[in-house]
Amino acid sequence: MTRIVSLCPSSTETAAYLGLTSNLVGVDSYSDWPAEVNDLPDLGPDLSIDMDAVMELKPDVVLASHSVPGMEKNTQEMDKRGISYVLTSPNTLSDVLEDLMIIGEATGTTEKAEEIIYACRQMMDTYHELASRCEPSRLYWEWWPKPPFTPGGGNWLTEISAMAGAENIFADKEEASVKTTWEEIRERDPDRICLAWVGVPFDKVKPELLKKREGWPSMKAMENGSIDVLPEPLYCRPSPRLFTGLAELAYLLHPDIFPKPLSSDVLLHP
């Protein structure tokens, strides 16, 4: 059996989609899906991985991702120790699917990767077609509140927004992640605000804080009460779970056009 260690949640989730959950022998502290991984050895926060513990687990392969800022620290240490790893660096949905194949090839699960990629592309085609029937809603995505960080045009959330019948108000920025200001967000005046604070539990996100930002109470989204606290794992982790996030968002925005998701995972349990 191939022994796998994962150093970040998106890699852990990708392994699960490939049917490799039982092959995982250790994960980082933030990996929490699927539930079985909570019983595995905890190797520490993704930016402070216990490399001695990794070596003790004798993994055949370690999964790491540059989507986590600072992951270079871990890969440099693995290079020093001669630990074999697969490194991904996704920004777009195409990257996520390519990485699925890369990990599939490295773990002998290419056929499963191809099946998932086909299902994802089919879903993308369907949602693009349904989105063409929508009057786009202008979304502001907030990844971090102070200073505010938001996805730009080079990020998967711009694609997901479009397939959900919406428009990311920072899609004109080429970067995958944009550092902005409360004033610029106010000037762009979104129709809807989506809060998905990276690494912050759902129940700890405080939308009431938005009212304290200068000029924000008069924004269109604020006046209409169009503020959504969304589950960070479905929108901020570049794994196939993003497609469940797409289904949830599309139905939230346009329930008259998009189907209601019938499962907590649209790919594993369509």
Task: Describe the structure in brief.
By secondary structure, the chain is an alpha/beta fold.
What attributes does this structure have?
270 residues; Rossmann fold; 2 domains; four-stranded parallel β-sheet
Description:
The protein is of the alpha/beta class and 270 residues long. It folds into two domains: 4-89, Nitrogenase molybdenum iron protein domain (Rossmann fold, 3-Layer(aba) Sandwich), CATH 3.40.50.1980; 131-253, Rossmann fold, CATH 3.40.50.1980. It has nine helices and eleven strands. It has helices at 9-17, 51-56, 72-81, 93-107, 110-131, 156-163, 182-188, 220-224, 242-253; strands at residues 4-6, 24-27, 61-65, 85-88, 137-142, 144-145, 148-151, 166-168, 177-179, 192-195, 227-229. It has a four-stranded parallel sheet with strand order 2-1-3-4, with helices on both faces. Strands 8-5-10-11 form a four-stranded parallel sheet. Strands 6-7-9 form a three-stranded antiparallel sheet. Helix 1 links the parallel strand 1 and strand 2. Helix 4 (93-107) packs antiparallel against helix 5 (110-131). The longest helix has 22 residues, at 110-131. The radius of gyration is 19 Å and the shape is globular. The model has no long low-confidence stretch (mean pLDDT 95).
Number of domains: 2
SSE pattern, N- to C-terminal: EHEHEHEHHEEEHEEHEHEH
CATH superfamily (homologous) name of the largest domain:
Nitrogenase molybdenum iron protein domain
- Helical residue percent? 25-40%
The biggest sheet, with number of strands, parallel, antiparallel or mixed sense and barrel status, is: 4 strands, parallel
Strand content: 15-25%
The total of helices stands at 9
Mean pLDDT comes to 95
Number of E-state strands = 11
For the largest sheet, list the strands in their spatial order.
Answer: 2-1-3-4
CATH architectural name of the largest domain: 3-Layer(aba) Sandwich
> What's the CATH class label of the largest domain?
Alpha Beta
Stated plainly, the CATH topology of the largest domain is called Rossmann fold
Helix vs. strand class: alpha/beta
InterPro entries: ABC_Transporter_SBP (IPR050902), ABC_transptr_periplasmic_BD (IPR002491), Vit_B12_bind_prot (IPR054828)
Organism: Sinobaca qinghaiensis
Family: Belongs to the bacterial solute-binding protein 8 family.
Keywords: Signal
